[in-house]
Fold each of these.
Amino acid sequence: MAACWARIRGRLRDEVGEVEYRSWLRQMTLAGIEGDEAVILLPTRFLRDWVNSHYGDRLRTLWQGEDVMVRRVDIRVAQPALAGGSDGQPEYALAVAEPSQMQGLAESLAPAPMFRLPDRPAAEPRSDWVVPLEARFTFDTFVVGKPNEFAHACARRVAERPASPGFNPLFLYGGVGLGKTHLMHAVAWAIRELQPARTVAYMSAEKFMYRFIAALRSQNTMEFKETLRAVDVLMIDDLQFLIGKDNTQEEFFHTFNALVDQGKQIVVSADKSPSDLNGIEDRLRTRLGCGMVADIHATTYELRISILQAKAAAARVEVPGKVMELLASRITGNVRELEGALNRLVAHAGLFNRQVTLDTAHEVLHDLLRAHERRVSIEEIQRKVAEHYNLRLTDMVSARRARNVARPRQVAMYLAKQLTQRSLPEIGRRFGNRDHTTVMHAVSRVAELMQQDAGFAEDVALLRKMLES
Ligand code: ADP
Ligand code: MG
């Protein structure tokens, strides 16, 4: 019987092609022959219905070719007896295709394979939405600092105790490249490890919409709803994508309610807080905000240094402190870019078998560093310097000559010359209509003092660093 079944599957595979076979048929197992019926198992209702309607007749014909006693084929929803295997990771019922799998709406609307299926049968009934979690997005590799410690703590808490009161939904928000997706994957990985029986579905809001539209098209919305409502943890990344997509929002709202009512955990990320997400329906906004809302702030210089240290260590590359300081002070926008710069340095060093030095950093990254040259305004400089020396902003432009005011003003002029493209006359004008020679004098005086007084030099360097980051 096993041999017959193997031959049948081989025939089917030849007939439908590898892609189709993997998508729909691979998970079939033969339970046995009952009377004149061959009983075939599939792990979900969705797959069962699909295979039944598309391949049912063909399966029966192939069976009859092998065994004339078999007149019918019965496809049932169940896990095969030997499910899971002992060789490790449960195949997770997770979301969603990577970008390459869903190239555009047209393709994802095609009725043919929408889901990539696990290589092995899952250990228990799970949805058929598979798991491409990014392997390196775990809690271990997430560097915690002031800007993200709250979001991180919330994420950990949800990973350890999903659906605890006060943490459902967990709404993570923050700017691009600050670690939202990383944290979400980390939660999914952790739940997978700590509580393998729970089903986690992770997907971007965009994929949610594609799936939903595809389901509408193929009149399969019931299946769509059921699949989603059967998960224990639903994670939707980049919810801002649903702005203006009313039908999809509505569907998400219902899914959301159904899951929360059943005590399931929802985790959502977006680029803004619920109250700032214009274009999201009010009732959904209210629901989104009623659990835990945690923001990830822009990185600080310290966090950027820690991240660089962690990544250099992980790559086992020695990166001098000076180089890290350069990157951390120049590439301030988001962690993705920072990472990109470090990767480039590391790749370059590997390729040419050279050490990473400040010189190679300037050489390899000159375009990047130039693009990130901070445009500091004179106003910003005046504000920071005034703050630092406990003065008012107006002191920067006033005529007062008292040393405790005049010296900081000179420092501000010096920094304006160093950090902006402004000419001396222009800088003079912005400091209370002073002459360009006054600025020139300030610049050389500050440079001189920095030579003589280490404490003063340190002060100026610190101000400069703050302004540059
Ligand atoms: P977002 O989803 O917020 O746009 P991602 O989660 O995709 O950002 O993060 C962008 C990149 O930066 C990823 O490679 C991620 O690993 C890295 N990253 C962001 N924050 C951190 C952090 N705190 N520690 C380590 N890596 C981080
Ligand atoms: Mg993201």
Amino acid sequence: MNNLLASIEQVTLMGPGPSCISDEVFKAMALPTLGHMDKDFILIMDGIKEMLQKVMATKNRLTVPVSGTGSAGMETCFVNLIEPGDAVLILKNGVFGNRMFDVASRLGAQVDAVDAKWGTPILIDSVKEQLAKKPYKIVAIVHAETSTGVLNPIREIGNLVHQNGALYLVDAVTSLGGIPVPTDEIGIDALYSGSQKCLSCPPGLSPVSFSDRAVHAITNRRKKVPNWYLDMNMIIQYWHGANRVYHHTAPINMLYGLYQSLYLILEEGLEAVYQRHMKYHTMLVSELESMGLQMLVKSGYRLPMLNAVIVPDSVNEVKIRNELRNTYHIEIGAGLGDLAGKIFRIGLMGHTAREENVIKIVSALKKLL
Ligand code: PLP
């Protein structure tokens, strides 16, 4: 029988995630599997919680990785906080804001939206105007909109959300580990991320964090959380306390990978990690602009880890991506939704954000374009 795994190639992952994984993380994932209630594994769980608090800049006790990808983190935040009829406001300017709207609507919330044009940030004045109309239970926003490469102003919007009295829910799937996510300083009440972006661990885990206010809302619900697997009231009993209670079998080796990737980030130092992302983003943009290419997003609102580049009219976008993958063994991302066929998405996330990768993509694009 032919084993397909034997022919897997090394591809440089320069798309919207997953990102490149370091050998240290792969080695950690290949360590012997312990039992999910094993005393040594529980120490590793505690280490993960502690390191996540550092990377998320929070003292929130309820800071744990959810078993599942970033979308599971999104579901976890909404399903634990929303009760039918709750007023929820979603600020959306891309695919992942739309996904939040869908998730919140399925839970029976009364969902309003403030939209901004894709490729531009959420406008603070339009949020102010909407929040003046009524009180909300939750206001949600995507920090780093991966579908467009836009950085949203979460700090300024956070001030408005607090004046409204709402809980502030932030998607940090792409931002965490690439730019600062000052959870406590901004007063974020529910935060979720994903392992496969700037944390540079394979996809499969979604770190989440809840403030005391959010925990109060979760523990004082009128009805049980309608999703058994993601119910924080139960999950917390596996992740906290002297006597751990089994909930579901934790993905042990994935958690080894997350442990190691957080360890590497903290060993390098958060500031150094953020500077590295910015340095190679700046280098990439200046190289692309010198080739005559244009960025979709205006300077000042660009994400360092996700670079949206306008595809020139004369260029066949699919052909270029296929050539990059087949000839140069580089993956980049395509545009989604309204931006399909119009942009390339070049990721410089986590372990991908290195000089050799900028040189690799720029020299390949120079040959192809
Ligand atoms: N939110 C953002 C901003 C994302 O970029 C993604 C994935 O790209 C998600 C949520 C969903 O994460 P996943 O695909 O890991 O479920």
